[in-house]
Amino acid sequence: MSSVVTYEKVGDVGKILINRPHVKNALSSEVLKKLAEAFEQSRENGDICVIFSSVGRDFSVGLDLKEIYSLMKDSKNSDILDFLRSFQDSPGPLFVLI
Known about the structure:
The two termini are 25 Å apart. Strands 1-2-3-4 form a four-stranded mixed beta sheet, with helices on one face. The radius of gyration is 13 Å and the shape is globular. It has a single domain (5-96), classed as 2-enoyl-CoA Hydratase, Chain A, domain 1. Helix 1 (29-44) runs parallel beside helix 3. The protein has helices at 29-44, 65-73, 79-88, and strands at residues 5-10, 13-18, 49-54, 94-96. It is α/β, with parallel strands linked by helices and 98 residues long. Helices cover 36% and strands 21% of the residues.
């Protein structure tokens, strides 16, 4: 089974890819956790920018607001907060290919 998120370093550029085309790249808890890890890896590798994209026709259908709320209410599940912080802490520009 392939990873739901991949990170690749090309020169000084990080490439992060969501890989769930069968569900239009919906942002599950697992995807959010892996995205936060990928952005952290990019930061640790000193990428000067990040290209953020996805596999398939749809960039992402997003996440159900009820799911976001339930994730945020559960103090044991910080995946959504880690994901949001990974954007805030980005060391350089973030390019999203849609």
